[in-house]
Design goal:
Shape: elongated
Strand content: 15-25%
Helix content: 25-40%
CATH architecture of the largest domain: 3-Layer(aba) Sandwich
Structural class: alpha/beta
Oligomer: single chain
Largest sheet: 7 strands, mixed
Order of helices and strands: HHHEEHEHEHEEHHEEHEHEEH
Number of domains: 2
Number of helices: 11
Number of strands: 11
């Protein structure tokens, strides 16, 4: 629900913080001492807050202030408000210091993303509110992200000329079809000419100007999809063959790996790249360092 443009809040953030302190410290006296305010000013703030809202938030039981039922609900929501304001103020300070509001991580689709999860879980705790955009790249799209510096960090299986990268684990692609596909009945290994007579499922290159410089793309018929998750059901249905990484096919039950004469599978190295080099911002640099520490230790 959007807020009307002419709406003026009846309460202040300071009033809510005082209410929280009174509850957290068990009364006005201790809360006043803890946050260095007079007890009378705190009594006035809470009274004014209740008057503005028209509801009772606190009631005194003995010598202790306790929340009413309405107060419990309002207190929970007020804590969300103060956390958001604190984060907003921290974000402003971070931006003032050059901390990026958003960073982009481009990941080649042949890379198993489950390897990133431990790093991303830890990074979230130190990201200071910066947004992370994770973008799929395929083939020359990965190279383009490096050359154009359209991403802060790139995981790629190719390095453009003059670019260095931190080596990661190798990727692997298997040539697979459904077990009831005609190609599965051929004696192995099959020839490229035999393969070319059947429909191939390929993954769309994410570059603005794709260059078909690698991969087996000689089939007479070709269906193009956006990612492996779209390709897998087509292969499982017996519609065509496809090069897929093992982490995509590991739970598939009716697939057969083909042996292609001269190239039974595709393999290669993966690299972690900082396209902007010394211009990389501190948040992106933090994530990069965490990725280097985790991925080069566990995936090498």
């Amino acid at each position: 629900m959007s807020t009307p443009p002419n709406y003026r809040p009846k309460t202040t953030l300071e009033q809510w913080r005082i209410l929280q302190a009174v509850v957290d410290y068990g009364g006005y006296a201790r809360a006043a001492e803890a946050i260095n305010k007079s007890q009378s000013s705190m009594n006035h703030a809470v009274a004014k807050l209740q008057e503005s809202l028209g509801v009772k938030l606190l009631q005194v039981v003995g010598r202790k202030a306790e929340l009413t039922n309405i107060g419990e609900v309002m207190l929970r929501r007020s804590r969300q408000l103060t956390v958001l304001v604190t984060e907003l103020e921290q974000l402003a300070q971070n931006l003032k210091q050059g901390w990026e509001p958003e960073i982009k991580l481009a990941v080649e689709m042949v890379f198993d993303r489950t390897k990133l999860l431990p790093v991303l879980r830890e990074f979230q705790l130190h990201s200071r509110g910066s947004r992370l955009v994770i973008e799929d790249t395929v083939l020359t799209g990965s190279v383009e992200a490096i050359i154009d510096q359209s991403a802060d960090i790139v995981i790629s299986h190719q390095l453009p000329r003059g670019i260095v990268g931190e080596p990661l684990s190798n990727y692997r692609m298997q040539l697979v079809v459904a077990s009831d596909h005609p190609l599965a009945q051929f004696p192995q290994p099959i020839s490229p000419d035999q393969l070319s007579q059947y429909l191939q499922v390929v993954i769309r290159d994410t570059a603005r100007k794709p260059v078909e410089a690698e991969g087996w793309l000689k089939a007479e018929q070709r269906w193009t999809v956006n990612n492996f998750n779209e390709a897998l059901p087509l292969v499982e249905a017996g519609i065509g063959f496809c090069w897929l990484p093992p982490f995509v096919t590991r739970n598939a039950e009716n697939l057969v790996e083909l042996s292609l004469s001269g190239s039974s599978r595709r393999e290669g190295g993966m690299y972690l790249v900082l396209p902007k080099n010394e211009k990389t911002g501190p948040c992106a640099r933090l994530l990069y360092d965490m990725l280097v520490s985790e991925l080069t230790n566990t995936l090498a």
